[in-house]
Amino acid sequence: EQFKEIWSPMEGSRTIGKISLEEILELILRKHNRYSEELLEELVEKRVWAKAECFKHLNPEIIPMLEELKRNNIKIGLISNCFSEEAKLIRESILYPFFDAAMLSYEQGVKKPDEEIYCRCMKELHVTPEECLYVGDGGSLELEAADKLGMKAVQAVWYLKEGTNQPVGRKIEFEQVERPLDIIKYI
Asked: pLDDT tens digit string along 112-161?
């Protein structure tokens, strides 16, 4: 609980690059008189390891879907609300080479659902909202923002696990995409 007292209210700042993982952990450790370089290093290492694990458990259709989009000369942009450690891992991931533009909130200083991050991505891709298919799990009001801008927004429900505690469920106002390869139907 003491950890969360500092960690949770700083989520927004961590997401837009105002404070890194190392900085927030050092702040928390010092506030509770627990700081040591060794402990800080251990916590950072564990957090990075846990986040890196996500990339080892991708849906088996993700890479084939991205490859098919590329074969069809479809530009692919990534807009992600992420922290310092996640931004680094995204850039090092197997997915990163598929993106023609990557707007990572930690680096951009702005996060979803702010229209600015969507506009930056479209500008880099040289596309209009009407040319965009926005695919997301529905967190951070991302689908609503994409729709408001004029993009076709669909919810990637393959991320949702029924019966688990999740920040967002199915959003019936958006088309539901059950499998990654179903995205191909939209091109």
From this structure: 999 999 999 999 999 999 999 999 999 999 999 999 999 999 999 998 87
Three-class secondary structure of residue 177 per DSSP? strand
Tokens 């694990």 identify what position? 53
Over residues 79-125, the pLDDT tens digits come to: 999 999 999 999 999 999 999 999 999 999 999 999 999 999 999 99
Helices 142-149 & 115-125 angle (0-180, nearest 10): 60
Residue with tokens 């996060």: 111
Token pair listed for 2: 């003491």
The first and second tokens of residue 162, run together, are 């029924």
113 C-beta neighbours (distance < 10 Å), count: 17
pTM metric for this prediction: 0.94
List of residues 6+ apart from 62 with CB closer than 8 A: 95, 180
Helical packing angle, 21-31 and 37-53, nearest 10°: 140
11 sits in which H/E element: helix 11-15
3-state secondary structure (DSSP) of residue 142? helix
The secondary structure of residue 19, as a DSSP letter, is S
Euclidean distance between CA atoms 78 and 169, whole angstroms = 21
Two structure tokens written together for 82: 């992420």
Q: Do 65 and 41 meet the contact criterion of CB atoms below 8 Å apart?
A: no
